[in-house]
Write a structure and sequence with these properties.
CATH superfamily: Response regulator
Structural class: alpha/beta
Low-confidence stretches: none
Number of domains: 1
Order of helices and strands: EHEHHEHEHH
Number of strands: 4
CATH topology: Rossmann fold
CATH architecture: 3-Layer(aba) Sandwich
Largest sheet: 4 strands, parallel
Shape: globular
Strand order of the largest sheet: 2-1-3-4
Bound molecules: 4-nitrophenyl phosphate
Strand content: 5-15%
Number of helices: 6
Oligomer: single chain
CATH class: Alpha Beta
Radius of gyration: 15 Å
Distance between the termini: 9 Å
Length: about 160
Amino acid sequence: MSRPIRVLFVCLGNICRSPLAEGLCIGSVERRGLEGRFEIASAGTAAYHAGELADPRTREILEQRGIQLRSRARRITPTDFVYFDHVLAMDESNLRSLLAQCPEDHRYKLRKVLALSSGGDVVDPYYGGPAGFERNAAQLEVALEAWIAHWLTDRRDSDHA
Ligand code: 4NP
């Protein structure tokens, strides 16, 4: 039996977008009955909000979908690049920051989260209203379906030791 596929979602503060992606991905995986197949987490490139629960606007969207997310914000660490199989950035700035920190032989794990769907960025919603979070959630839901389908059919990923 192969170990779970390890996925890390990354934004700047780890309180708005990446916990939203984490929660939506957990929800989608659970709906498909695939809990044991994935290990899903999130982190930020900055530590401004380390230790905090996700922003209430993110938690509200997740709760509307029956998902209770209890994870606390943390900054990405060097070992994350080794441990996780896929590290998905919300925007170009996050990706550049990850590329600058990631050891070269793990850079293939880094992508933008919308790479398989619309392309472009999941825009920082922090200073806006709830509509920005709703838009982020709609983009992420499409993107995550594409990623989950991709991971399930990628033999290299499902063959982890
Ligand atoms: P996130 O949003 O990167 O999606 O978690 C932000 C959260 C906090 C800040 C910026 C973006 N901030 O500047 O504190």
